[in-house]
Amino acid sequence: MEFDLVELSRFQFAMTAMYHFLFVPLTLGLSILVAIMETVYVMTNRPIWRQMTKFWGTLFGINFVLGVATGITMEFQFGMNWAYYSHYVGDVFGAPLAIEGLMAFFMEATFVGLFFFGWDKLSKVAHLIVAWLVAIGSNFSALWILIASGWMVHPVGAAFNPDTMRMEMTSFMEVVFNEVAQAKFVHTVSAGYVTASLFVLGVSAWYLLKGRHIDLARRSVAVASAFGLASALSVVVLGDESGYSAGHTQKMKLAAIEAMWETHEAPASFTLLGLPNQAERTTEYAIEIPWVMGIIGTRSLTQEIPGIAELVEEAEVMVRSGILAYDALQTMQEMRDETPEAVRLSFDQHSEDLGYALLLLSYVDDPREATDEQIQAAAWDTVPNVWVIFWAFRIMVGLGFAFIGLTAYFFWRASFRQMQFPRWALRLAVVMIPAPWIAAELGWIVAEYGRQPWTVDGVLPTALSVSQLTVTDVWITIIGFVLFYTVLFVIEVALMLKYIKKGPHEDVEETERWMQRHYHRLRTTDGKTPLASPAE
């Protein structure tokens, strides 16, 4: 099987993005859990909570460092592999990325250093503030990345400038408060909280099975199960909000998720299971739940959700409209200041559909020369791979409900059964450690693969976004990334397993002795002078 430049570039970016996202959810969730644990330590002054903070903080640090290395690589790819994309929409897409680097990442990286090296130099309250700033920085970083990603799905606050031949920002606030970006942010960070919670739950369950670090493990289970249950429930609620948003911003993706080939009478049913057949444009052996999809997608029982066939017909109309915009744009480029007003008016009327005309460049050099068959083919190109989207979504949702059940059970045992956990439940918690990552990766497949054939939905086709490289160039970088990332993955797993097997580096007695020495240093000038007695 031969890959062309576009497919190879897509494969490379997908590989590096999904690898990077192995680190992101754990960073988001562990930063919050560590801050919660340190908050309890400051409030109760109990050494066990300081021990928990340092132990889980160590695992957070390992994950954070490797996540940063893979994230930087991804941003370089926009210039290396997707140069035309960067040129075409860089004025819009680059803004949130720059803010993420200047505001969020630098803040996060600075306070991570204070968190690890400030235990002996900061007071408890000051160190707690640092812990929360690390958590806020981690989540704030995700916000700006997801604003950029959300704009690619729902490109508001920007317009095409025919003079510069680029997309330019018209409203920064519309970009920031894009409803798709906000829905993606809250849904993604909640999924990260679930990932970290099940990681802490699983590792703690392993300790309980081995009879090691019992106090730390039980308290960690209590925190992780409570936080995980709240997060898992919020993922479902926020996922429902994403479905409603898709109902009017990503109609084709929603129809693909449902394998809804034809428009159904309102309210549409939800297809629980089935076998989508894209060649025949049918879903075989479909098991449907009445009304559910209509409620999710429209919040009503009377509004229809358009099917794939109807959306393709709409796409064909937009392709033909885009051809008019393309024709006017070519005239404007040739005549410049002498362009007739009627031509400019025609471009203004059809400019929103220009991206659909660009789909024709996969079939013909000049979209104005496209045949009816080519226009229809371009319209059908707007349909993503339904089978992949359909099943990725259902496996993700199924895992989400499994997380609710698991965290609810452990929360009940921790709260009402004196933290006594059956061994089968502990084993299940260990086995479930990888499951949140699987769900998160499937979620990204639904979100990003479901946007195809667009890099920026309705604006720029993926086939036009790549750099002018050779297939050999891309293969070399793919091989390099595979080797480099394999080494990083081995290092990550080895370090994580090493520190998990080692357990907390201090026991409670050592922690108590440290606290005594720390208070002494804070209350004397040199840390050695004996403290004066209260009578003196």
TrEMBL record:
One GO cellular component term noted in the UniProt record for this chain: cytochrome complex
GO BP, sorted A to Z: aerobic electron transport chain
Main subcellular location of this protein, as a coarse class: membrane
Topological relation to the membrane, as annotated: Multi-pass membrane protein
One protein family per Pfam: Cyt_bd_oxida_I
InterPro entries the UniProt entry points to: Cyt-d_ubiquinol_oxidase_su_1
UniProt GO molecular function: electron transfer activity; heme binding; metal ion binding; oxidoreductase activity, acting on diphenols and related substances as donors, oxygen as acceptor
Alphabetical keyword list: Cell inner membrane, Cell membrane, Electron transport, Heme, Iron, Membrane, Metal-binding, Transmembrane, Transmembrane helix, Transport
Subcellular location: Cell inner membrane
Parts of the chain that traverse the membrane: 20-43, 55-73, 93-117, 129-153, 190-209, 221-239, 388-412, 424-447, 474-497
Family: Belongs to the cytochrome ubiquinol oxidase subunit 1 family.
PANTHER family for this protein: CYTOCHROME BD-I UBIQUINOL OXIDASE SUBUNIT 1, CYTOCHROME D UBIQUINOL OXIDASE
Protein name (record): Cytochrome bd-I ubiquinol oxidase subunit CydA
Biological source species: Pararhodobacter marinus
